[in-house]
Every structure is written in structure tokens, then in C-alpha cells.
Structure to design on (219 residues):
């Protein structure tokens, strides 16, 4: 009898510095998803973090030559083979970084179809948080990924903040996004609970979630 393949979460971090708050956010989101996946089912969970800083020269060479070096090919294969994806970019000029965009330009145009994705970003000020909605969400929607409802933005002041009575702190937002990714990977609703659809949900909701994902991947 064949062993069940593990579930795989891949986080792509486009930070340029070392250490990097972008990598730190990617690590925390990946760990949150791993913990909640491991608690919700019996399959083994693997996590891989792709740090684009280490692949910058390979990405540039591939854009020019059309041939990915071994390290870059392994990263692209990891993204294509992931059950769930986390994509984190620093904010540059009110958008995602050029390195982040260049990497996803190299991902095959059907590789993310139907794949659940958490988007996240880091920046120095909360004023740039809309980059998630006006830049990153449209990018992954164009790639036909299933972009999950909760996106995570971390400004410098968010690290170490627990929030207040009116707002969620960064740790709770990370946990909520990780839970949504875990639920999507295992075919649950993003709230983490299965339920039977009704006519009030519309015709599309009567199709099981797994079949909707399969249709996106083959459509």
C-alpha cells in the first residue's frame, strides 16, 4: 500500500535584507498554516521557504536566456507542486518589488490555477497596506489562483503589537490567514468547518469545494 503523500506549503519571500522582516513574516505565516494543518488531519505537512534574494541573479539570467539554473528551477517546481502558497513582498514604490514580480513572471501561466494563496506584505508605515488589494490580489487573480480572504500587512510598528479593543494585532491576523490556508488545502470552508450548501448559496455553492478547485485547475 502506498504511503499518503505529505501536504506541502511553500512560502515565497522577496525580502532583500538579511535579516528580513519579509522572511520573518513568511516564516510565521508558514508555521501558522503548518500547525493548523497538522492539528486538523493525519497527513504529514512539509513547509518550504523560497527566499528570492538568493535567486536574484538566476532570475535575471532566466529572463534573458530562457533557461532556469538548477536552484531557480527547484524553486519554480516547488511553487508549482505546492498544495498551498504564501507570497510575501516588501513594498517598493507603492507596489510589490521588482524581484517578486520577476519571479512570478517565470511561473507557468497555469501552474497557480486553483491553488490557494495567502498574500502578505511588509513596509515601514501602515499607509502602504493597500498594496495588498490594488497590486497583489489582482496579480494572483490574473494567474487564476484562489486568493484567500485574509491578507496580512506588517508595518514596522506591528511587530510586537497585540492590537487593541478595536483592531487585531499581527499575531491574530497571521493565525487567521494560516487557518484559512489550512482549511482551503484540506477542502474545508475558510472558516474551518464543513457544511452542506443550500439553494440560498446559489448554484455554484452546490458543487463541492474540491470539484470547484478541480474545475479551476483544468479550465
Amino acid at each position: 500500500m502506498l504511503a499518503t503523500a505529505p501536504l506541502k506549503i511553500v512560502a515565497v519571500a522577496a525580502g532583500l535584507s538579511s535579516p528580513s522582516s519579509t522572511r520573518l513574516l513568511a516564516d510565521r505565516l508558514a508555521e501558522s498554516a503548518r500547525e493548523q494543518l497538522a492539528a486538523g488531519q493525519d497527513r504529514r505537512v512539509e513547509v518550504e521557504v523560497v527566499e528570492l534574494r538568493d535567486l536574484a541573479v538566476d532570475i535575471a539570467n532566466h529572463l534573458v536566456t530562457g533557461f532556469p539554473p538548477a536552484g531557480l528551477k527547484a524553486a519554480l517546481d516547488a511553487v508549482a507542486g505546492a498544495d498551498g502558497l504564501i507570497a510575501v513582498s516588501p513594498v517598493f514604490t507603492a507596489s510589490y518589488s521588482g524581484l517578486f514580480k520577476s519571479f512570478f513572471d517565470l511561473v507557468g501561466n497555469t501552474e497557480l490555477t486553483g491553488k490557494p494563496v495567502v498574500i502578505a506584505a511588509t513596509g515601514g508605515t501602515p499607509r502602504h497596506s493597500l498594496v495588498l488589494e490594488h497590486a497583489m490580489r489582482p496579480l494572483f487573480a490574473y494567474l487564476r489562483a484562489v486568493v484567500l480572504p485574509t491578507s496580512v500587512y506588517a508595518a514596522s510598528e506591528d511587530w510586537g503589537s497585540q492590537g487593541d479593543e478595536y483592531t487585531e494585532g499581527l499575531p491574530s491576523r497571521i493565525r487567521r490567514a494560516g487557518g484559512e490556508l489550512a482549511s482551503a488545502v484540506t477542502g474545508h470552508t475558510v472558516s474551518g468547518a464543513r457544511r452542506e450548501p443550500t439553494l440560498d448559496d446559489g448554484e455554484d455553492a452546490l458543487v463541492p469545494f474540491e470539484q470547484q478547485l478541480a474545475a479551476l485547475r483544468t479550465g
